[in-house]
Structure to design on (736 residues):
């Protein structure tokens, strides 16, 4: 593996919920400026892993290093300030706020204003607000939202809400963007748009992107490297082609015995919670 | 229909003369019959038209200044009761606005808000009276010749100290409260309010800080030079019809200070709401987890909401202590906290004009409407009048049916009806519309994309 600059490195990350080990000794390395995916059956611990990276959960063991800084002990807002942003699997917009306000909230960590300046309306404060609003408008444009800035976020159609979530995450000026099932519930055309957008984020803004995705079409198309999780563990890692051919992955998705039949194919839509036969949980060092 | 009517009210010069006419009519009515409630309502309604109709900002300001500085003092000097009503409206507006920051903007339910008011009131109550010299005295006794601790004009400084001290107490309450939310938060704040009240009740021993349940009195008012009263009388005397005594002028003074504080509070609230902090508060209210993930330090923002909300109450507490010259734990009960919460919810949670309307409605209902219905019934009871068909003589009407005794019942009914038919309040909160590229002007209403 060529050793490029790493933007994210996780080593031995463990997260338990009571007796359940949701993330088990997870090792993960991601190079700067890449698009990586994490896949796996439902309940495999993908979102939990995301949450430990973004600071919503505290990892019980292990280290997470972002851009040379250890972040496993930091709170979520500190981690965002370090330029890590995320979206949520089940959209979590601030529904009672307008679209533009949602995006402005995303830019909170980049604001340098205090209550006194806000009350006195200092020139610096006003300029900053204007700049933030302008940037929010640019971001709306960038993700393909037009003329809805004053609409309540909750009133937007599903695809629009997904876009707002991305714009809100972008407002915090991220270097690493964590997208949790960003195309879930989208139709093929919308999915195509979304994939195009993600590529542009990487190519034009230089943002490294880590996605959780169920749509194999998206995963195989967009990601340069795929990590497969099952039962909280990493069971495989590699390029899309390697993953598509990996017997253990096919087994995790389709159950034991399916490996032979399905080998080679890029497995189309992975059936949601298909993880039938239990995989013998050995370490999957690839 | 209603919208068309409103639009016709907003056309051309109409709003200007409409507002002016309403205010003038209300003023004349109240001037002629100072006790009439409908007259007073017309006056209040006219004043609020200045807000609701579409006026140019300078015109709106001019109306407000004329009403606040000229008309109300004149009416108040003729009937001090109105000053009391408006003073209370102002006090409760500030309280409701403060609570609105906590409950409305940040979504933190607070049932103990009066504690911060008490902090302000007892701050001046303690330092503005003889109490610091009575620490070893038996509660309720004042050795003759005990001087006051501070000169009366420290009051003005203490309005600011009240802000600071209440904000600190808000932070202290906020710290343990951060880890709980929802109903648990409500219970903790409720308990906090009771703790403060019980402290005030019992801090008369071993050292007599608060004088216990008897409360502290007398508390000093700021000094008032005779020249000021004379000046007022020279200008407004002919209109008032009789010279105003200096004790009556105190009511005008406190009214003016209260209005000034409310104006400041409104400005501060508006500006905070429309800033990064205000948006962060709302984000925490909407979805705390997502807000944290978006880089908002939720705990720090909750603390700041508590502190800012408390500070408004602190300032008003100082004012309250000075205007009453008396404070006792009685004024800061759980029911009083609920009363303020009622104003917030009734007016429109999270909406600044709504909350003020809530304070106006509840206060007028409390002080004027229910009282005067009681009075009217009492008069009927003494008369020989009866309801014809059912032959019911008013004098048989039980004393128990006195509406002022049913304040809570009336409130309860109003609240229930409001929650069913208008859950967002009289004047629901609306998000500010920004002027954005690719958006039509907000005045056109509909969005027809170009």
């Amino acid at each position: 593996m060529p050793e490029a600059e790493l933007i994210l490195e996780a080593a031995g990350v463990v997260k338990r919920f009571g007796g359940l080990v949701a993330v088990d000794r997870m090792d993960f390395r991601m190079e700067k400026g890449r698009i990586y995916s994490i896949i796996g059956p439902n309940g495999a611990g993908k979102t939990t892993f995301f949450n430990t990276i973004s600071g919503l959960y505290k990892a019980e063991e292990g280290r997470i290093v972002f851009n040379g800084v250890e972040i496993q002990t930091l709170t979520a807002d500190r981690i965002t300030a370090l330029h890590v942003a995320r979206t949520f699997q089940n959209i979590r917009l601030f529904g009672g706020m307008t679209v533009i306000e949602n995006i402005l909230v995303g830019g909170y960590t980049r604001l340098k204003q205090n209550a006194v300046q806000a009350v006195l309306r200092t020139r610096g404060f006003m300029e900053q607000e204007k700049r933030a609003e302008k940037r929010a408008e640019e971001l709306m444009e960038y993700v393909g939202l037009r003329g809805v800035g004053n609409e309540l976020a909750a009133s937007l159609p599903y695809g629009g809400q997904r876009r707002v979530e991305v714009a809100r995450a972008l407002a915090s000026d991220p270097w690493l963007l964590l997208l949790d099932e960003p195309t879930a519930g989208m139709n093929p055309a919308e999915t195509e748009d979304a994939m195009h957008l993600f590529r542009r984020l990487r190519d034009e803004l230089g943002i490294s992107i880590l996605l959780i995705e169920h749509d194999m079409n998206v995963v195989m198309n967009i990601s340069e490297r795929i990590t497969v999780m099952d039962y909280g563990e990493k069971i495989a890692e590699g390029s899309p082609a390697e993953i598509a051919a990996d017997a253990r992955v096919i087994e995790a998705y389709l159950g034991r015995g399916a490996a032979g039949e399905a080998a080679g194919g890029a497995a189309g839509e992975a059936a949601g919670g298909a993880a039938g036969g239990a995989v013998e949980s050995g370490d999957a060092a690839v | 229909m209603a919208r068309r009517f409103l639009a016709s009210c907003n056309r051309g010069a109409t709003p200007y003369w409409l507002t002016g006419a309403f205010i003038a009519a209300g003023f004349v009515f109240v001037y002629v019959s100072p006790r009439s409630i409908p007259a007073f309502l017309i006056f209040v309604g006219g004043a609020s038209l200045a807000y609701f109709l579409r006026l140019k900002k300078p015109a709106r300001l001019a109306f407000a200044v004329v009403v606040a500085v000229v008309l109300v003092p004149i009416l108040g000097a003729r009937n001090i009761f109105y000053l009391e009503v408006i003073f209370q409206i102002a006090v409760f507006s500030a309280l409701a606005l403060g609570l609105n920051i906590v409950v409305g903007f940040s979504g933190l339910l607070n049932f103990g808000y009066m504690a911060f008011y008490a902090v302000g009131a007892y701050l001046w109550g303690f330092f503005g009276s003889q109490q610091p010299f009575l620490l070893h005295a038996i509660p309720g006794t004042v050795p003759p010749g005990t001087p006051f601790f501070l000169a009366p004009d420290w009051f003005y400084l203490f309005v600011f100290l009240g802000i600071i001290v209440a904000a600190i107490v808000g932070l202290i309450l906020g710290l343990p409260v951060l880890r709980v939310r929802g109903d648990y938060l409500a219970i903790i704040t409720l308990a906090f309010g009771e703790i403060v009240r019980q402290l005030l009740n019992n801090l008369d021993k071993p050292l007599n800080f608060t004088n216990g349940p008897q409360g502290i009195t007398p508390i000093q008012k700021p000094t008032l030079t005779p020249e000021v009263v004379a000046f007022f009388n020279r200008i407004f005397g002919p209109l008032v019809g009789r010279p105003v005594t200096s004790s009556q002028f105190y009511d005008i003074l406190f009214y003016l200070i209260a209005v000034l504080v409310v104006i400041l509070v409104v400005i501060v609230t508006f500006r905070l709401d429309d800033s990064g902090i205000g948006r962060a508060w709302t984000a925490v209210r909407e979805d705390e987890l997502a807000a944290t993930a978006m880089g908002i330090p939720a705990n720090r923002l909750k603390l700041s909401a508590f502190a800012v909300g408390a500070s408004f109450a602190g300032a008003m507490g100082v004012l309250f202590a000075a205007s009453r010259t008396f404070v006792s734990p009685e004024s800061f009960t759980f029911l009083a906290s609920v009363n303020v919460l009622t104003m917030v919810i009734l007016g429109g949670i999270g909406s600044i004009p709504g909350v003020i309307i809530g304070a106006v409605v509840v206060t007028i209902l409390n002080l004027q409407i229910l009282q005067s219905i009681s009075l009217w019934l009492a008069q009927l009871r003494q008369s020989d009048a009866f309801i014809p068909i059912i032959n019911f003589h008013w004098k048989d009407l039980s004393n128990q049916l006195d509406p002022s005794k049913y304040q809570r019942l009336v409130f309860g009914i109003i609240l229930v009806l409001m929650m069913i038919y208008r859950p967002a309040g009289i004047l629901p909160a609306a998000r500010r519309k920004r002027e954005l590229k690719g958006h039509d002007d907000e005045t056109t209403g509909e969005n027809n994309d170009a």
